[in-house]
Every structure is written in C-alpha cells, then in structure tokens.
UniProtKB/TrEMBL annotation:
Catalysed reaction equations from the record: L-histidyl-[protein] + phosphoenolpyruvate = N(pros)-phospho-L-histidyl-[protein] + pyruvate
Similarity-based family: Belongs to the PEP-utilizing enzyme family.
One annotated Gene Ontology cellular component of this protein: cytoplasm
Positions annotated to bind phosphoenolpyruvate: R48, R91, N212, D213, R223
Protein name per Swiss-Prot or TrEMBL: Phosphoenolpyruvate-protein phosphotransferase
Subcellular location: Cytoplasm
Keywords, sorted A to Z: Cytoplasm, Kinase, Magnesium, Metal-binding, Phosphotransferase system, Pyruvate, Sugar transport, Transferase, Transport
Length: 329
C-alpha cells in the first residue's frame, strides 16, 4: 500500500470532478523540508518556528539563549531555499502553554490562557522584531508567508502589522533585501477569532485554521490532559460550525483559507473538510499522500450536499455516522 501511495507523489491533488487542492507540509525544523518534498508537498503551510527556540536552556539552568537574528535568518533561509520556490509559511514564535520556552520558568496557573504566542511576542517587542527581521530577510530567497498565532483582538493584529512595517523600514534603511509583498496571515484558533472573522479578513492576506487549539478553546478541554482526552471531539457541532464558517467567510472575502491542525491530516475527515469548501490542507508530511489519495477519489458534488446536512445536525451520533458515510461515497 505504501508503494502505491509513493506513486502519487507527482500526481496533482485534484478531486474527481477536477477541483485542485493544495497539500502543504507542517514542519518544525528546516531539515523537515526533505520529507515534505519527498511527499510531494506544494509548500510549507506551517513552519513551527518555536522549535528553533525551545530546549536551549543549558543544563545548569543558566539564562536561555535565544537564537540571534542571523541564526534565525540562516534557518528560515535554509527552509525557503530547500522548498525551491514553493511557499514557506513561517509562523512567528508560538511559545507558552504546551510549548514552554524555558521549562524551569514560572508557569501560570492556566498557561493555555496565559501569555503565549502573539501575546508573548507583543510583550517582548525586541525579540519579536528580531524574528520579523530574520523572516523578512529570508523572504528575498523565495516565497515566504508570515503566519501569526493566537490572535484574538484587532489591536494585536494592528500592533503586529506595525511592527512588521518597522522591521521593513529598518531593513530598507540598512539596504537589506526582502520581499515587500510578503503576505501576512492569521491563525484562527481562538473561538472569538472565528466568530469575529470580518475583523481578520479586513486586515490579513490569508487565514489558517489551527484546529488543535480551536477545539481546545471551544470545548474547554486541555489538549494535553489525558484525563479529559475522551472529550476532545473534532466533530462536536460547535467546532464544525466554527470551521465551516471560517472557511466560507474567509473565501467569500477572497482570502486563501487553510487548515493546519491535526484534522487536516486525518483521512477520515478529508471529505468533510472538502465538503466545507476547504482547498488547502497542511499536515505532517507522513500523512500527505494518504490525504491525496482520498482527494483523488472524492466527488465534490456528492460530498458537498451531504456536508451541508451534517452542518445542520446537532446530534453527535448522527454526525459521526454521516461523516463515516462520506467515506463510502
Ligand atoms: C493548532 O493549534 O491547530 C496548530 C496547528 O498549532 P499548534 O498545534 O502548534 O498549536
Ligand atoms: Mg495552535
């Protein structure tokens, strides 16, 4: 079966009725690009840049060494060059909660609700500016997109964009090259963001739905707490509603909308997401060819009407059964 999948590497991901779908890779380090290309990815949909920052405190517990602008630039550039012109979506630092920058540091009582991701970056402007400069510098080596995690407030978007402008201005004054048209997107992973989507659509170039956190925050289920893992349900009608709405409203406004959470790599959910209108999936490279196979065998017209019915249901058993039935279409 693996051999048959490998043959699909160069086959374009197109549904039976001819609709093209983008399949992107989630990576943690530039070295992961090899696996992404091996799986035939159309680009990197999520480069979790925090992995360049994590685990850098030394054994004596000395101060954490943040990678310098040059070190970061080198890593981002490596990924951009490796992807040979395909887009590389670099997510700015998403630390805190399940990804502590320094595990010995004080942790908040509710870290998932605390100073994480963009909140942390805006509280540490020097660190954020350094990262933005490094990403911008890498953007002159290929196609870079910047993705901002955990946005919920308009002022966070505005502050982020103004810091990006500041970074661009600095580079311009220093005569350093970057792509002036680099696209900036928001992770939609807080329910408030999904519910107030027009706030994002107005300000951003693209959207990427982080279903891992979106589920956690919608259902109030800690994503890393095994005691409540049985309640972590991607098919909860509230979760489906938020995802479907984000795709529909984002696309209507002309923005590309991707899903980059685990749901995008789950072949049991591929058709449901297609039915919601999703045309860009970003996942671990190991899942990519299986998802592609599912897409190649999918007929959108049948799936779309069934999905509409699923989205009107509030009965979990009915939803689960209908999603399973999509598989046999
Ligand atoms: C998500 O939240 O779905 C996501 C893709 O980001 P992470 O898992 O890194 O929080
Ligand atoms: Mg997330």
């Amino acid at each position: 079966a693996r051999k048959r999948l490998l043959k699909l590497k160069k086959t374009p991901a197109v549904t039976k009725d001819g609709t093209p779908v983008k399949l992107m890779a989630n990576i943690e380090l530039p070295e992961d690009c090899a696996g992404a290309l091996e799986a035939g990815a159309n680009g990197v949909g999520l480069f979790r840049s925090e992995f360049l920052f994590m685990g850098r405190a030394n054994v004596l517990g000395n101060a954490l060494r943040i990678p310098s602008e040059d070190e970061q630039f080198e890593q981002y550039r490596k990924a951009v060059v490796a992807m040979k012109g395909r887009p590389v979506t670099i997510r700015t630092l998403d630390v805190g909660a399940d990804k502590p920058l320094d595990p010995t540091e004080h942790t908040a009582l509710n870290p998932a609700l605390g100073l994480r991701a963009i909140r942390y970056c805006l509280a540490e402007p020097q660190l954020f500016l350094t990262q933005l400069r490094a990403i911008l510098r890498a953007s002159s080596y290929g196609k870079v997109r910047i993705l901002i995690p955990m946005l919920a407030h308009a002022f966070e978007i505005d502050q982020t964009l103004s810091m990006l402008e500041q970074a661009k201005l600095q580079l311009r004054e220093e005569g350093v090259k970057y792509d002036p048209d680099v696209e900036v997107g928001a992770m939609i992973e807080i329910p408030a963001a999904a519910l107030a989507l027009p706030m994002f659509v107005k300000r951003m170039d693209f959207l990427s739905i982080g279903t891992n956190d979106l589920i956690q925050y919608t259902l109030a289920i800690d994503r890393v707490d095994y005691e409540v893992a049985h309640l972590y349900n991607p098919l909860h009608p509230a979760v489906l509603m938020l995802i479907a709405q984000t795709i529909a409203i984002g696309q209507k406004a002309g923005l590309d909308v991707a899903v980059c959470g685990e749901m995008a790599g789950d072949t049991k959910l591929t058709r449901l997401l297609l039915g919601m209108g999703l045309r860009e999936f970003s996942m671990h490279p190991a899942q990519l060819l299986s998802v592609k196979q599912e897409i190649l065998n999918s007929d959108l017209s049948a799936i779309t009407s069934r999905t509409r019915r699923i989205l009107r249901s509030y009965e979990p058993d009915e939803i689960a059964a209908a999603v399973e039935q999509l598989q046999s279409l």
